Amino acid sequence: MRVNLIFLELIISELQKQDKVPNENLPSRSKSNFNPPQIFHEWHNCIMPNLTNYREENPTNNDWIWKNLPKVMQQCQGILMNDTIKVDDFRNNDETKRHILPLNEDELTTIITLGVGRDTVAEENLLKALKGPSKFYGADPIYEINAEKYNKFGTFFNFGIGAESGMFNLSVLIGRDYAIRLLPTISLVHFVKDILKINFIDDIWIDNEGAEYNLFPYFLKDGELDRNNITVCQCNLEAHSPNNEMKRKFHEFIFQTLNDKRYALLL
User: Fold this and answer.
1) In the chain, at which end, N or C, are there fewer CB atoms within 10 A of the end residue's CB?
2) Per the database record, which ranges form the Methyltransferase FkbM domain (predicted)?
3) Range of the domain at 239
């Protein structure tokens, strides 16, 4: 399942600051009194009751959110996708990634790819769509093909990215099949703060073949990103075939994200 996190209030606030935003581009219902959090609150008031009803009916079953989240998200995401917030799709060979392009064409856009998977079509299409300066950073524990592809437009790092640093068993693409290998991994905070030396990321594209579940707490309020003053504006997150423990983590992550009222969710 692919879930996109959007730091909506930050994005809308930045849109409103730009002189290039004509009044007619704002939603018609709010032209006279545009309040940045309004769209978020409308979306939140749509999705939260629906998911809460499912949870109350199935309090001990973590399968229900995995099965029903896409349906509920589809019911509500039309509130977010309007003329003010334009979400663009960038396809690669087997999936679609989403990104809100910067309104200010002079702004630097910083993109991080966790898990290149020998496929950089979406990143290259995003690069073409960006009008201003950009930096792309990609990490994957498999060097072959990934390094050559990513270094054509960005900077490639030959290690895995996870919640902690160390040696971990990772699911990686070797040839045409996935296999488990013991490989070096760097924590996301160490990678961003100490190696890249940045504290603002426009978008992180995460396709970590299972390692993403331990990264969920990073994006919550008072998580590792907050504690290290790192801001992530958008995140494309692919959650892979989960076992029961992974479904529990996914369940907790979705509800805590909604309770935090910081990120909006898109399919």
Assistant:
1) C
2) 94-263
3) 2-266
